[in-house]
């Protein structure tokens, strides 16, 4: 049973504003609040007429708590001190656009979505703000209206997209207080590519075949996973991110094992008839491959299959 409403607001500490409250956003908002850091979530204006209960959060250990987390709305966002964008990749630009002209210069924007190619668009929208890219391997599930479960502890890394972001290394330390681990990496693009490789391998296959991640460990998908990694490695090398297919496959299979009971975000999106992040994941890979004249037929096939299945759904 929920143990009662908890709100650890400390006004002297800069407040985190989380834009978006999907599965991962709800989990991060809960963990930040639990760590004593003032936190609020920023929702789209049409949610103003929606009943907003406390956030029902279940930890990795199975403990349930009810958090009273402040809510705001993008139409009147109020003062934002640090913005943590938790929407899906395909929603980032639409979610941030209403804040153009309302977000004070110098406020850091932290992006924590799957895929690549979005941060560069955010820099154009907010030329006077530090833009920070993040990758995380935490697992999260939303099972109801403001009901969230932390399903897997992972690593989180932040790094600079523009020069102004380099002054905000301390954000990683503050996230670490909530997440157990978070680090700063000046070469965040390499970590983004490594995460992209994992997503290219796991997400389309689990979504197309309606599988838990762990089901990719069998021989049925061995050849496909191997070829996906060969193609991604070719593109990464051309992009100046030297790696091998063997190294990428090892990373993929480690994640498959660690998240064996989880459903990938793309699988969840397909099941819920939501738009997937395929364009920011495999679509980004295809665009990079085309620039370098590299053939990636297996990834092309997976991309096309997701697109076709999404249209049918």
From TrEMBL:
Short name of any one Pfam family annotated for the protein: ApbA_C
Domain of life where this protein originates: Bacteria
Catalytic activity line of the entry: (R)-pantoate + NADP(+) = 2-dehydropantoate + NADPH + H(+)
Limits of the Ketopantoate reductase N-terminal domain: 17-162
Keywords from the named record: NADP, Oxidoreductase, Pantothenate biosynthesis
Domain (Ketopantoate reductase C-terminal) ranges: 188-309
Annotated coiled-coil segments of the chain: none
Protein task: Catalyzes the NADPH-dependent reduction of ketopantoate into pantoic acid.
Family recorded in the similarity comment: Belongs to the ketopantoate reductase family.
Descriptive protein name: 2-dehydropantoate 2-reductase
Species of the source: Aeromonas enteropelogenes (Aeromonas trota)
């Amino acid at each position: 049973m929920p143990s009662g409403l908890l709100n650890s607001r400390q006004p002297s500490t800069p407040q985190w504003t989380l834009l978006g409250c999907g599965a991962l956003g709800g989990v991060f908002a809960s963990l930040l609040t639990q760590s004593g850091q003032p936190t609020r979530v920023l929702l789209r204006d049409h949610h103003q007429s929606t009943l907003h209960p406390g956030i029902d959060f279940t930890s990795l250990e199975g403990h349930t708590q009810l958090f009273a987390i402040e809510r705001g709305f993008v139409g009147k966002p109020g003062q934002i001190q640090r913005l943590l964008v938790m929407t899906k990749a395909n929603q980032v630009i639409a979610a941030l656009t209403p804040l153009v002209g309302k977000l004070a210069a110098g406020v850091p924007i932290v992006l924590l979505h799957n895929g690549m190619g979005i941060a560069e668009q955010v820099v154009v929208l907010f030329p006077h703000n530090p833009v920070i890219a993040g990758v995380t391997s935490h697992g999260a599930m939303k099972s109801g209206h403001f009901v969230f479960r932390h399903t897997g502890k992972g690593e989180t890394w932040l790094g600079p997209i523009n020069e102004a972001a380099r002054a905000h290394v301390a954000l990683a330390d503050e996230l670490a207080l909530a997440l157990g681990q978070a680090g700063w990496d000046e070469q965040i693009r390499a970590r983004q590519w490594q995460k992209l490789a994992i997503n290219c391998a796991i997400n389309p296959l689990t979504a197309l075949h309606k599988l838990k991640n762990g089901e990719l460990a069998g021989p049925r998908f061995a050849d496909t996973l191997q070829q996906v990694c060969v193609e991604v490695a070719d593109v990464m090398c051309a992009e100046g991110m030297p790696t091998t297919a063997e190294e990428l496959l090892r990373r993929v299979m480690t994640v498959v094992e660690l998240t064996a009971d989880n459903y990938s975000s793309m699988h969840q999106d397909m099941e819920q008839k939501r738009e997937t992040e395929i364009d920011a994941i495999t679509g980004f890979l295809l665009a990079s491959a085309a620039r370098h004249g590299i053939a990636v037929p297996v990834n092309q096939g997976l991309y096309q299959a997701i697109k076709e299945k999404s249209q049918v759904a």
